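Researcher: Structure for this, please.
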Amino acid sequence: REGVRAVGAQAGAVLFREAEDALTLAAFEGYAPESLARWSRVPIVSGTPVAEAVRRGEVVWVPSRREMLGR
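Model: Predicted structure, token format:
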């Protein structure tokens, strides 16, 4: 919650690297729980911003919902 507020976001999630090839959802804020089923496990090779951030080793900001949906 605090992280979402700190950056002025409407929603956010925390994922951790449980395995070499995937991230696992640990916590979220601002999302309906039923909308997160596809985020419970995210392959590192996926095109998602969170997987991209892990591969690049840096933060990936998505400035709008529209841009996020277009990824």
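Researcher: Any notable elements?
Model: The chain has a mean pLDDT of 88. The first helix runs from residue 2 to 6.
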